[in-house]
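User: I'm designing a mutation panel for ATP-dependent RNA helicase DbpA and want to avoid disrupting the core. Could you give me a predicted structure to guide residue selection? Please restate the sequence first so the numbering is unambiguous.

Assistant: Good idea. Sequence first, for numbering, then the predicted structure tokens:
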Amino acid sequence: MSDFSTLKLRTDLLGNLDSLGYRSMTPIQAASLPIVLSGQDLIAQAKTGSGKTAAFGLGVLHKLDVSRFRIQALVLCPTRELADQVAQELRKLARAIHNIKILSLCGGTPIGPQIGSLEHGAHIIVGTPGRVADHLRKRTLSLADVETLVLDEADRMLDMGFQEVLDDIIAEMPAQRQTLLFSATYPDEIQAIAGRVMRDPERVEVDTSQSDQAIRQRFYPVRDDAQRLEGLRLLLMKHRPDSAIVFCNTKRETDEVADALRSMGFSALALHGDLEQKARDLMLIRFANKSATVLVATDVAARGLDIDNLDAVFNYHVARDLDVHVHRIGRTGRAGSHGLAFTFFSEKERYKLEKLSEKTGQPIEESNLPSGNQRHQTTYKPPMVTLQIDGGKKQKVRPGDILGALTGESGVPGKAVGKINVTDNNAFVAVARDHAKQALEKLSSGKLKGRSFRARRI
């Protein structure tokens, strides 16, 4: 079923789709629209640009009753830019429905005009969690009649620290509603929120499953540790991953390799069991938000790490346990992306590779290290920079406040803001390197919760 006309959609919607030239459904639309139209809850895993706005938008518009001038659907998005984009697409899909009102409620813009618009009512709200929560607190917004809740790019909202805000918003809605959750990845946090706020959801995955083909494995014979380290440098320079884990077998080796990489100019962190919790937490924040490129770790220290979109895994030595090897490389090539797994081995370790080949049923392909012509290149920098704010949960600082302060008037674009982590007394926000200076100035000169907080780059 790939044609919109095969769906039991309202005739005015079908006619408008035809006039827009929308005839064939994308895979995510074909997989999810029948479920959405049936009224069931849905978890849909699909990448940005897959046509997911129409997948939930058509379902929302199909069951909308324009004669009831109440808010019947709420669409939550992580950034103002995405919310504006979704609202624009919904208005386009709703062109044939007369007297429909779709309202955007986003941070970074004055709240007064939004209050005025809400006084005149709306059918669909598209907004960011922080600003929607602001209106709920001010009692300028009622969600008592919401029949459909859409969480768009839910994984990104959780990355940006909106978990508690989402819970507060959902608590203001009727329990009897349809909830549609769209996400590019499916981390444990998504599973947890789905368990709390959804009723027997159907799950749809489009081109996001991990497969053996998603991970390219390469094995490199090395003579000694000097060649091992040089091989690591050459492969990092050749493939330039934004995030890579180097697995070492001992804590001492972890420190040595991280020190050597830093001396070469890489942004590298050493993770092992001797670290204090505060230092470990900060390290993981920086690595997960892509403001540090390489995490050098022991298996024990890396246990429980949930890092999505990991570009590459390096085995500095072959793992002592072959199950550990399989687990290590399984950290890359997730969510439909392609991953790289590189393993260095000495002649003494060759027998382990033979056992690995027997275990997995796959041949071991030996490769030659890249040539050393990258020696004189300047090492590349991580795509993001972490800014620390000296205010956190105890000072009532929320992710939405930080996002609003950064993207407000003359601010940075929403797509330049990465993960936001708020701890008890601090907050950490990742910003694209090109916008870091501007972002720091905005935070240093502006206010959060009506107060000035010290901000610095770490």
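For picking mutation sites, this is relevant: The chain is about 40% helix and 20% strand. The CA atoms of residues 58 and 93 lie 7 Å apart.
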